[in-house]
Specification:
The chain is mainly α. Helices cover about 85% and strands about 0% of the residues.
Length: about 90
Amino acid sequence: MKWLVNEDQLLLGSLFVTLMVGLAYLALSQATSKIPIALANAFWEGLGMILIASVSFVFLGEAISIGQMFALLLAIIGIVIINSGHAMQEQKQ
């Protein structure tokens, strides 16, 4: 979207974002039919944040501070803990 908006393509950028958000929600709804909502949401939010930060850093040349890197690391740790908790819960059943 940032590239399209910078090229004065606001409408195209907005349509692209709307399509991508719609696809993300469709994927999330499909995921929640197979795994618990808490787990699906943790992955969706956490991995989305990590991917957006990574793309911004690598492709758009945006800076990431030490604090932001620490926050991304905490997000990864949180995703791992939620996933391991879900796996332990599944083993008990």
